[in-house]
Amino acid sequence: MLKIATFNINGVRSRLPALLEWLDREAPDIACLQELKAPDAAFPIDEIRAAGYGAIWHGQVSWNGVAILAKGMEPIESRRGLPGDTGDTHSRYVEAAAHGVLVGCLYLPNGNPQPGPKFDYKLAWFERLIDYAARLHDSGHPVVLAGDFNVVPTDEDIYNPKSWLKDALLQPESRECYRRLLDQGWLDSLRARHPAERIYTFWDYFRQHWQKNSGLRIDHLLLNPQMAPHLKDAGVDRWVRDRPHASDHAPTWISVDLKVQKQPATQKAAADKPAAKKAAAKKTAAKTPAARPRRAKPAG
DNA sequence: ATGCCTTGAACATCAAGA
């Protein structure tokens, strides 16, 4: 079983004790981090290695910054930065292979205030993500696209949409982009695993929102068709948010079982005969869970 | 409409987060 997590850490240096405590206690095999808020040279690689993790990171002074950690191995970097705009200097995307999975770690722009140039940047970045994600989706590898998407997908993903109506995270344009991304065939794993539950991954620092559980679901792990059938469980490590000086996000995770189920030799031999092959294919199709995400209901 | 709270930059107050 493989545990894959995403965690907007909101400052990797100021939150290093929290990160190490979480890694020690939850031991994710792969951890995507966002909002490092540190330049490359200040990334605490020594402490992370001492905790048993290899890492790649794409830092930036003061803001943004993303990293991928892998337990007991060095992630093999396959990309840093989204294609489509060479003038974009924000560190918001990094990608690596680890433990047999291709992992895209992203920090989508917040987009506030909207309307305005920051919202335009958010939507433009989203379009680049949608374009690139299509390639990932069709890569043939098991892929997870994980991170802080800065989108509340539906009104079921926030404590009270009325308070946030003007916020960039709830705008129809933001939600439309997210839906278009899912419609490529990605599975929203948290929602798939818990179809009818309130799940939050972020609680802002204002108005005692954590204490009141006034949260938003904005950290997502999307799975392509090579990955989705292996999903076993998903959740949020809420205890991390309850610690003193916590990030405003909590780590969000899935577990997947990628082990190939070996067929008994006799069954395998039988499967080579055309008639049996056809029956086996039919059986497989019937057993495969719906990989397509359900369409979000129109808001309102 | 704005602040609330928190970080990182630089050292009093910003910019930015969501």
UniProtKB/TrEMBL annotation:
Protein name: Exodeoxyribonuclease III
GO biological process, one term: DNA repair
NCBIfam families per record: exoDNase_III, xth
Site description Important for catalytic activity, residues in chain: D219
Marked site positions, Transition state stabilizer: N150
Cofactor(s) required for function per UniProt: Mg(2+); Mn(2+)
Site positions per UniProt: Interaction with DNA substrate: H249
